[in-house]
Write a structure and sequence with these properties.
Elements lengths: L2 H8 L3 H10 L4 E4 L2 E4 L1 H19 L6 H6 L3 E5 L2 E5 L9 E5 L5 E6 L2 E3 L1 H10 E7 L4 E6 L9 H17 L2
Antiparallel strand pairs: 1-2, 3-4, 4-8, 5-6, 6-7, 8-9
Helix pairs in contact: 1-2
Length: 170
């Protein structure tokens, strides 16, 4: 197909199609000074653009409903409206195996094996995590320890990213 037909199919300008051909984003050959575009390659490029657009379009919003949908427990008292995430550690990139006694037998952070002690310190770094409906933000109360693998602020950021992923999967 030529650049005009490709532009119509991809809903972009002819200049964009020419740029894609020039940089190799789509498979194309130049014959007699004109681009001849491979239809399958263009369809693949259109699919990539559609996935990117869908990812950007799905905006994650923290609300009481979304937080309870991912397993949070709503609490209302004295004018406060919060959703507590009692299992906040499941949103971390932390994998743990335990012995029957409950002690940690193996741990990994972001796929990399770490010391069991560091995993325990990570779990002790944050005490509680909750969503406050008044300001629409995720909050936490820090625990008694801090790991050298990740700071408390990095842990809260990782929890927020995990919560966003869980809400987006709804």
């Amino acid at each position: 197909m030529n650049t005009t037909a490709g532009a119509i199919e991809a809903s972009v300008t002819v200049d964009t199609i020419r740029t894609w051909c020039r940089i190799g984003a789509v498979a194309a050959l130049k014959q007699a000074g004109r681009w001849v575009i491979d239809a399958a390659s263009l369809a693949h490029r259109i699919a990539i653009g559609a996935r990117r657009a869908a990812r950007k379009a799905k905006k994650v919003v923290f609300t009481v409903d979304t937080m309870t949908a991912i397993g949070g427990n709503r609490w209302q008292k004295n004018g406060m409206d919060r959703v507590y995430l009692n299992d906040w550690d499941r949103y971390l990139p932390l994998e743990i195996d335990r012995y029957k006694s409950g002690n940690i037998s193996w741990a990994a952070w972001e796929g990399e094996t770490i010391a069991n002690r560091q995993a325990g310190l990570i779990l002790g770094s944050i005490d509680k995590v909750w969503f406050d409906a008044a300001d629409g933000k995720l909050h936490c109360r820090y625990g008694y320890s801090e790991s050298r693998i990740a700071s408390r602020e990095e842990l809260l950021d990782a929890i927020a990213a995990g919560v966003r992923t869980a809400i987006a999967a709804l």
